[in-house]
Every structure is written in structure tokens, then in C-alpha cells.
Amino acid sequence: MYKITKTLSEKNINIKDIELQKIRENVGGTFRLSFSSISELDGAKLLLKKAGFSISN
Questions:
Q1: I need a surface site. Which of 2, 15, 32, 53 has the fewest CB within 10 A?
Q2: Higher confidence at residue 7 or residue 26?
Q3: Contacts of 14 (CB under 8 A, 6+ apart)
Q4: Confidence label for 28 from pLDDT (cuts 50, 70 and 90)
Q5: pLDDT band at residue 5, thresholds of 50, 70 and 90?
Q6: How high is the pLDDT of residue 10?
Q7: Long-range contacts, stretch 36-44, CB < 8 angstroms, 24+ apart
Q8: What letter would DSSP give residue 51?
Q9: Three-class secondary structure of residue 32 per DSSP
Q10: What is the rounded radius of gyration, in angstroms, for the C-alpha atoms of the chain?
Q11: Which residues pair with 34 in a beta bridge?
């Protein structure tokens, strides 16, 4: 979670809402993030992909 928020905050992208959808032992989890605008969403997707996160729509 920290890596996600740090990556986005460095570019002044604010998370409007965050939800942990599932987490399993030794598997990881799925976060759902919401943003205030399409431009913030697009910027967040690009930054998080570059940081190595898997992105889905």
C-alpha cells in the first residue's frame, strides 16, 4: 500500500477512494482506486505500471 501512495503522491495525484477487494495468504491482494478526474486516472495508471503494478479496468 505504501508504494502505491508514495508513487502517486510524488506526482501530486490524489486517491479519492481506496478499497481492498481481496487478499489471500501468500498471494497478494487487489485494490480498487478512485480518482477525481480522468486525467488523474490516466496518470495514475501510467505511474503504477511503471512501478511494476498490474493494472486492470
A1: 2
A2: 7
A3: 8, 35, 36, 40
A4: confident
A5: very high
A6: 95
A7: 40/13, 40/14, 43/11, 43/13, 44/8, 44/13, 44/15
A8: T
A9: strand
A10: 11
A11: 17
Q: What is the pTM of this model?
A: 0.82
The span from the CA of 34 to the CA of 50, in Å, is 19
| Whether 33 contacts 14, CB under 8 Å | no
Which residue in this structure is represented by grid cell 502517486?
A: 8
**Residues pairing with 33 in the sheet:** 18
Question: Residue 31 corresponds to which cell in the numbers above?
Answer: 485494490
Q: Which of 37, 34, 2 has the alpha carbon at shortest distance from 18?
A: 34
Place of cell 501530486: 12
In eight-state DSSP terms, residue 25 is T
All 3 cell numbers of residue 49? 505500471
